[in-house]
Design brief:
With 191 residues, this protein is α+β, with helices and mostly antiparallel strands. Helix content is 29%, strand content 37%. A six-stranded mixed beta sheet has the order 1-2-3-4-5-6. A hairpin with a 5-residue loop joins β2 and β3. It is elongated, with a radius of gyration of 21 Å.
C-alpha cells in the first residue's frame, strides 16, 4: 500500500510539473480549442499558451473567425493575471469564475461586418451562440440570468478596429465613410 501511495504521489507531481512546460500546455490547449471551435460554430485557434504557476496565463496568436471564414477577432498576445483559487471557487455564487485582476491585449484586431440579409453583426452570431451554450435549460425565460464578467484593469496596446457594412456602397471622395472604416494604433487603459 505504501509503494502504491508513493507511486501515485510521484505521478501527480510529474503531471503537475509537466503542466509548467508551454509545449505541453499548448498541446492540451489545441485539443480544447478544437472542441471549442465545434461548439461555438466559429473556427478558433490559439498558437501558444503559457501558464505561469496557475495565476498568470499568456495566449499567443488568438484567432476567432466568423461563420463566413473572415477573421473576426485576432490578438497577437493576451496576458491575464488572476487569483486562481478565486476563479475556481468564485468570490460568491454570482461571480463564479468571472473575475480577472488584469488583462493586457497586444495588437488586438476586431473586424465587425454586417450581415447583408439580416443586418446583424458577425459578432452578434458569436455572442448568440455563447448565450445558447451557457443558458440554463432549467430556467427558460427567466430574465437576468447573466453573470457579470469583471476585469479589474484592461490594457490595449496597438489595437485596430474595422467596420464594414456590405449593404452600403463605399463613399469615394468623402472624408469619412462611416459604413466602411478602420481605426488603427488604438492604445487604451480601463479600470
Amino acid at each position: 500500500v505504501f509503494i502504491f501511495f508513493v507511486t501515485i504521489m510521484i505521478l501527480a507531481e510529474m503531471i503537475s510539473l509537466s503542466m509548467q512546460f508551454p509545449a505541453i500546455q499548448t498541446l492540451i490547449l489545441n485539443y480544447i480549442t478544437k472542441q471549442l471551435s465545434t461548439e461555438l460554430q466559429h473556427p478558433t485557434s490559439i498558437g501558444r499558451v503559457s501558464i505561469k504557476w496557475f495565476d498568470a496565463v499568456s495566449l499567443e496568436k488568438v484567432k476567432i473567425f466568423d461563420r463566413q471564414g473572415r477573421p473576426m477577432i485576432q490578438v497577437e498576445r493576451v496576458d491575464v493575471n488572476h487569483d486562481f483559487w478565486g476563479l475556481i471557487l468564485g468570490k460568491d455564487k454570482k461571480t463564479f469564475g468571472t473575475y480577472l485582476d488584469e488583462a493586457t491585449l497586444y495588437r488586438p484586431a476586431v473586424w465587425l461586418v454586417k450581415n447583408p440579409k439580416t443586418g446583424d453583426l458577425n459578432l452578434d452570431e458569436f455572442i448568440a451562440r455563447i448565450e445558447e451554450l451557457t443558458a440554463n435549460p432549467n430556467s427558460p425565460g427567466v430574465k437576468d440570468q447573466n453573470v457579470p464578467f469583471v476585469i479589474k484593469q484592461v490594457h490595449l496596446i496597438e489595437g485596430s478596429f474595422r467596420w464594414d457594412d456590405p449593404r452600403e456602397r463605399i463613399m469615394k471622395g468623402q472624408a469619412f465613410d462611416y459604413n466602411h472604416f478602420t481605426l488603427q494604433k488604438i492604445n487604451a487603459e480601463a479600470r
